[in-house]
Amino acid sequence: MEKVPEAGYPIVGLPIRGIQRSVTLANVVKNLAVPFRLAKSLRQAMHLLHKEQPDAVVGVGGYASGPTLLAARWLGIPYLIQEQNSYAGITNRWLARQAAAICTAYPGMERQLRGKNIVLTGNPVRAGYQPERLASLRAQALEHFGFVDNCPTVLITGGSLGARAINRAVDEGLEKLLAAGIQVVWQTGKAYAQLAAARAKDAEKMCISEKTCGKIWTHAFIHRMDLAYAVADVVVGRSGALTLSELCLAGKPAVLVPSPNVAEDHQTHNARALTDRGAALLVPDAQAGSALISTTLALLHNPALRKSMAACTGALAFPHATAHIADALEKIARPYSA
C-alpha cells in the first residue's frame, strides 16, 4: 500500500483477510468475520471491474487475489494466475480450473494446479541482476558500501520488514564475522535499524584494534539491491518467491532461513527447491541462533562450494520471465475495442 503509489500507480485495498489456521478463541472470532469480509470484498471487486473494464485480470496468489479473480470469472473476464511459489496456495488452487492461463515459477506444478494452459515462465524480477551487469557494477558497489576488494562479503537481508531470527543471529555473531575478516551488508528492517547501527559501531571498534579487515554496513532498507548483489559473495535471507528468483538470476550462493510465519509453510518448500538442486543451504528459523553464523562462515571460506552453488543457482534462473508472462497475458486478453 506504500510502494505501489510511490511507483506512480493507483491501488485499491480490499477488506478481505486470510483464514487463521491455529485454533484459539481470538482466531475463531476472526474467522467468523471472514464470510462478511469476503462478501464486502466481492462487491468492491465487482464495482472496480465494472468501472475499469479490463481486458484481462492477473492474480498472484494470496487471499487478496481471490475476490477479484472470482469477480472476473462472474463477469466473463479472462484471468491469468501467476503462481510464484513451489507450493501453490489455497487461493490459486481453488481458482486454477477456470483460469485462462497459469504461469508458474517451478516445474511440475500440474500436480497442484488442476488448470489448463500451464506454462513455466519463472517469476518477474527487477531488471539488471544478470551476472555480467553485476560484475560491471562491482567497483561502484565497493565504493557505495565503503568496502575493499580483497575481503569476502556477505549480504544479509530479511526483506523490507526485517527478520527477527536473522537479525538476532547476526547481532550475536557480529564479532565472529568481523574477526574472520568478513565484510557485511546488513539490511535490518525499520524495527531493528537503530540497534543494529549501534552494535555495528561497537563491533567494528573491537575489530579495528585487532587489525582485521571486517566491516559492517547497516540500513533499514536497501534501495540499490543491484549494488548489494554485485558486492556479495554469499547471500543470507528468507526464501520468499521473488527473493529466490533474484538470487537465481544473479547466480549467488545462499543460506536460506525460511519464515515459519507464512501460509502452508511455503517458504520451506521454496528453499528446498534450491537446496535439493545444490543451489543453497537451509537453516531452519528455530536454529538460526545456533547455526546461521557458522554455516555462513563455512560457506564464505569454501570458494569451491560457492562456485558450484552459484552454477546451480544460475541454472534455475528465468531471465525472460517478465516477457513470457506478458506474452501469455496478451494471448488471453479480450480483443481491445476503442
CATH architecture of the largest domain: 3-Layer(aba) Sandwich
Shape: globular
Terminal CA distance: 31 Å
Helix content: 40-55%
CATH superfamily of the largest domain: Glycogen Phosphorylase B
Radius of gyration: 22 Å
Detailed description of the structure:
It is built from 15 helices and 10 strands. The longest helix has 19 residues, at 34-52. The chain is globular and about 65 Å long. The mean pLDDT is 91. The strands form 2 sheets. The chain has a 6-stranded parallel beta sheet, sandwiched between helices. A 4-stranded parallel beta sheet has the order 1-2-3-4, with helices on both faces. The protein starts with a helix and ends in a 6-residue tail after the last helix. β8, α11 (241-250) and β9 form a beta-alpha-beta unit. It folds into 2 domains: 3-123 and 320-332, 3-Layer(aba) Sandwich (Rossmann fold), CATH 3.40.50.2000; 131-315, Glycogen Phosphorylase B (Rossmann fold, 3-Layer(aba) Sandwich). The protein is α/β, with parallel strands linked by helices and 338 residues long. 47% of the residues lie in helices and 12% in strands.
